[in-house]
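Thread: "does anyone have the structure for this chain?"

Original post by V.I.:
We have the sequence but no experimental structure in hand. Need at least a predicted one for the grant figures.
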Amino acid sequence: MSASNVQKPKALIVDPGGTSRTMLRRMVEQAGLEAMMASSGAEALALARTEVVDIGLLGYLLPDMTGLQLAQSIRPHVAKGAPLLLVTSEEHQELLQEAFRAGITDVFQRARLGELLVYLEAFLGRLLSRDVKGAHILLVEDSRLFVHIVTDMLARCGMTVDCAGSVKEARRLFAERAYDMVITDLVLEGGESGLALVRHLRQGEQDFVKLPILVMTSFDDPTRKTELFHAGVNDYAPKPLVEAEFMARVRNLLIARQLFRRVEEQERRMRQLATTDQLTGLSNRHLFFDSAEHYLARAERENQALSMLLMDVDHFKQVNDRFGHAVGDDVLRVVGGLIGASSRKGDLVARFGGEEFVALMPNCDEKGAQAKAESIRSECERLDVSGVRPTISIGVACFDPLDPESLDSLFSRADRALYEAKRLGRNRVVLDNRLAGQQEELERLLKA
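Reply from O.Q.:
Generated one for you, tokens below.
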């Protein structure tokens, strides 16, 4: 069952504006929640009186009150048990104590918003786990009476049921469609038992929790129960079925499946947060260094060219000083997006830090690297971001598989070329010629 089967919970974001407001909204929507925006405490209270609020993200400094004052005023108007989170740049013990006294559920620092995203995703998972409506069940049963009884129980809880009367038919349906759960009788027509179906399903890549299997059986001896669990069954329901007990077992298995999938998604997001620059969406410096050595090793092993582009937004400090950091962030986001969109599948593109970006392009020689760098420079020159017309300087260095070098050496040459581009007036591409550099170094050593 996916989040699309359930109406999205609503998150109230109370923030005066700017980059932080935009990032909070994007984070809330990324987590799968619907964002409602307010710029002041009064506006937030008005929204809470007319809209359902499942969770609140409150800025600390608001135009008309503090986030702590708002928490005390808004609590009676939000959903029962709804978390109220304080998002702040402040970080001291006294604030934490005041926040908890005011009814704040938890406090998140703006500098560590990745933790907030994990919290929001876990919050949505907890909400979704309360509801099993929309689950798609494969019921394998050859008794028309039991098919009617079980289908009726599941349908009354909002589940969709496909029925098969034999293992052969169940295999066909399972191959054609995705199911959230399989419920099967132990004794079936067609010469194959429910255990044969269980063995078939467990031979694939379906995990024990990803695909729960419930067996209905009139055999209730301990030996048979042990056989069922050894075969890969998650649970069993004795016949004749008791509706309350049967539905409790079904619900528990579906909730366990949902929670497991949410944990998997949270782990994936944590890995992504650890390797992704949150402002631009590109890889970060950590992932670049983790991967770059493999790029060089592969280029040497496969005797292929490899080029590095080191890029720096010109006069970026002046952009921040003149237009503000919010516009500066927009410039970096747009320029990063341009660089990412210009890359090929297989290129390693990262925000290296500040206003600096780096790209490793496998199977790309000097001519191709210069052409790509010039294309990026030219496209950047045509941008207009909130009145800012950014330009970019690019240093290019190429790896020779017949004369390999270290990553530090390649990076140093790209950095030297970038420095030269800056020295020559910026908004230009400079290629570092390794042979010329080696000749200059040799001449320097000879003179010494």
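V.I.: this helps a lot. Residues 1-6 have pLDDT under 50 and may be disordered.
O.Q.: and The longest strand covers residues 306-313.
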